[in-house]
User: What shape does this take?
Amino acid sequence: MAFNINVANSCKLLALRGQRYDSTATEATIVFTELETLGTYTAVMAYDNAGKGNLNIPATNLPSANGVYRACLSENGIEYSCKPVLIKCNIDCCLTKLTNEIIDCSCDCPRCASALAKAQKVFLLLESAASAVEIAGVTQSDAYFTDILEKYLKAKEICDNSCGCDC
Assistant: This one.
């Protein structure tokens, strides 16, 4: 009995893999709730005869292309598992821009120090959020979902207008 979600293809796709919990279930319903706006998206994953399911969901189907989601799997009306999903390509692009600024610095000036400090804060927040995603996937504690969201939002705030990809 497992339920896994991976963010793939440069944050363009969510790859879901699961094995049924209820031996009579032929499909699972997965509800994605974006934790900042509480927008939702619902998907259905069919199980094969061995009770395994695979589903790929384009990120464009979700309420937001980036953010923190709670994905809950239900079968026959019973919720069995909730997992956190962190889609952070917007923050990764910010880090890329900040890193490029640091590389372009030819001196030890205040502007370079500021970019480095900003990049360090963003990186640490994202690493900590990613670690919390791993822990929350096992414990399913609401406190971890809140922690992940707070770290993501702080990194997003620090990046403000420093995005470097599709801005």
